[in-house]
Amino acid sequence: MKRIFLVFLTAFVAGCTDPGRNWSEPAVQFDGTAYRPVYMTAETVREIAILPARGLSEPGKIYWKEPYLFVNEKGKGIHIIDNTDPSHPENISFIAIPANYDMAVRGNWLYADNLTDLLVFDMSNPRDVKLAKRMEKTIPAYEFPPYTNVYFECADASKGVVVGWEKVRMESQPRCRR
Fold first, then answer.
1. Beta carbons of 143 and 22 less than 8 angstroms apart
2. Using an 8 Å Cβ cutoff, are 63 and 69 in contact?
3. Which of 8, 14, 31, 43 has its CA 20 to 30 A from that of 52?
4. Are β-strands 151-152 and 176-177 bridged in parallel, bridged antiparallel, or unpaired?
5. 0.85 exceeded by the pTM?
6. Beta strands, E only, 41-155
7. What is the full per-residue pLDDT of the chain (178 aa) written as tens digits?
8. 94: exposed, middle or buried (C-beta count within 10 Å: 0-12, 13-18, 19+)?
């Protein structure tokens, strides 16, 4: 039985390797671009504001709760749009939430991320949104981009907290990769 196990283990390990790969070379080739962290102060990240409507520039996720649409603006917040008349939707307000990338609606509650915090908004009246609760440090924070096989500039806590990543040209290969 022991011999069968060793034969199986050897075959499994051999099947998981790439015999043509030079293991001394990095798996990721630097192409002159990498990700650079976008920083904010911890205080600025926590500043939430209900603002007048504004145009969409980089929309992300969309959530529909009849007759309203909630459209995430990647890293910036959430647009609230009255879609009572689909041929003439009315952009009614914008909830400015730094480092916001996700949201959900259940009943009269809008849930949104704010870096590591989970925010709960009372949407009983979508034209008069209220922050009802902040649950601190409920979401893990990562100091690397949400992509794999990329190079990135290592995060530096002395510059603030990382709220996003931008792909930029770099003269030399950064030290960090994933």
1. no
2. yes
3. 43
4. antiparallel
5. no
6. 49-52, 59-65, 68-73, 77-82, 90-96, 103-106, 109-114, 117-122, 130-135, 151-152
7. 555 544 454 554 555 554 544 445 556 789 999 999 999 999 999 999 999 999 999 999 999 998 999 999 999 999 999 999 999 999 999 999 999 999 999 999 999 999 999 999 999 999 999 999 999 999 998 899 988 999 999 999 999 999 999 999 999 999 999 8
8. buried
